[in-house]
From TrEMBL:
<dbReference type="Pfam" id="PF04069">
    <property type="entry name" value="OpuAC"/>
</dbReference>
<feature type="domain" description="ABC-type glycine betaine transport system substrate-binding">
    <location>
        <begin position="32"/>
        <end position="311"/>
    </location>
</feature>
<protein>
    <submittedName>
        <fullName>ABC transporter substrate-binding protein</fullName>
    </submittedName>
</protein>
<dbReference type="InterPro" id="IPR007210">
    <property type="entry name" value="ABC_Gly_betaine_transp_sub-bd"/>
</dbReference>
<keyword id="KW-0732">Signal</keyword>
<dbReference type="GO" id="GO:0043190">
    <property type="term" value="C:ATP-binding cassette (ABC) transporter complex"/>
</dbReference>
<feature type="signal peptide">
    <location>
        <begin position="1"/>
        <end position="27"/>
    </location>
</feature>
<dbReference type="GO" id="GO:0022857">
    <property type="term" value="F:transmembrane transporter activity"/>
</dbReference>
Length: 333
């Protein structure tokens, strides 16, 4: 199924990108376009960015609709709406997406994030500069004392995921698999903002912190964090690692996450020029992390972050569209 998804994505990107380059944009052909706006910042920023370009550059009647991963995929396959979902993490939904692609209901437009989604264990760069061995799992095992847990003297503290997040189960199993149970406590930060706040507070004070985190996010845009190495993903043992009942977790790591844009096949057919833009969107992770950091610092909305991206990074987005479309968007900005 993974190969099916990858093959479909490559075909969609190559064929529609050629079409977009060859055919000028015609506003009257676009019509109403609905875009899923997910609840997290990166997806909301991408949704607003595509709305701006489709509205101002292609003359589409672009509209944002609330979305979430599985409900949006289901709605796209059953109701043919929304037309576009700019940020889908398919790892847990490969079978559903694969069948929808096979049935011709949706197309995989592009790999939205050039580097894929990021998940893993991180330590600050200033700690790695002082102790290079902390960049590896073996170094962390040997130097838990550098991350002291004030509530449990003699142990290091690892900031894991809040209760209810799947990654809390994964982290617990990985701590066992790598023999870190006796060396570290697994501290529940209570919430997503609690986890982000713990990392930010430690970093700004130049204090030790060892934590799970993910991206694209403002945290990875604002702070220089080093992902812990010496850990590799093993698909054969991964299912056990994700289970609360895993009796014998083996060393593993979070798999690479292709983050995709999905589109309804009917939209790709009726508005090939607009779809050509959508299928060309591919953003470097460090750029999106920086935009999200700017958004947090300025308390901006998703629309504000999208405007900032379009104004600040024309070298990234203008190759996605014909020159006349880029000029229209710039004029609107």
């Amino acid at each position: 199924m993974t190969k099916l998804i990858a093959g479909a994505a490559a075909l969609a990107v190559s064929s529609l990108a050629v079409l977009a380059a060859a055919v000028p944009a015609h506003a009257e052909d676009c019509g109403r376009v609905t875009i899923a706006e997910m609840s997290w910042n990166s997806a909301a920023t991408l949704a607003h960015m595509e709305k701006i370009v489709l509205s101002e550059g292609y003359g589409c009647d672009a509209e944002l609709v609330p979305g979430d991963t599985l409900p949006t995929i289901t709605s796209m396959t059953e109701k043919r709406e929304p037309d576009i979902a700019p940020e889908i993490w398919p790892n847990a939904h490969k079978a559903v997406i694969g069948k929808a692609v096979e049935d011709g209901d949706i197309v995989i437009a592009t790999k939205t994030l050039q580097d894929g989604g990021q998940e893993g264990w991180f330590v600050p760069s200033y700690m790695v500069e002082a102790h290079p061995e902390l960049a590896t799992i073996d170094g962390l095992r040997a130097h838990a004392d550098l991350f002291p847990d004030q509530e449990e003297p003699g142990k290091g503290r690892f900031y894991t995921c809040p209760a209810g997040w799947q990654c809390q189960i994964v982290n617990a199993n990985l701590m066992t698999a790598y023999g870190l149970d006796d060396a570290f406590t697994q501290f529940d930060p209570g919430s997503g903002p609690g986890l982000a706040g713990a990392i930010a507070k430690a970093y700004e004070r130049r204090e030790p912190v060892f934590a799970y985190y993910f991206g694209p996010t403002a945290i990875l845009g604002k702070y220089d964090l080093v992902r812990v190495g010496g850990m590799e993903h093993d698909p054969d043992t991964w299912t056990c690692v994700t289970s609360r009942d895993c009796a014998d977790p083996q060393p593993n790591m979070y798999p690479p996450s292709d983050v995709l844009t999905l589109a309804v096949a009917a939209f790709a057919d009726r508005a090939p020029e607009a779809y050509g833009f959508v299928s060309s969107v591919s953003i470097p992770n460090d750029v999106l992390n920086a935009v999200l950091a700017w958004q947090e610092d300025h308390q901006a909305t998703g629309e504000g972050a999208a405007m900032h991206f379009l104004k600040t990074y024309p070298e990234i987005w203008t190759p996605w569209v014909p020159a006349e479309v880029a000029d229209k968007v710039k004029a609107a900005l």
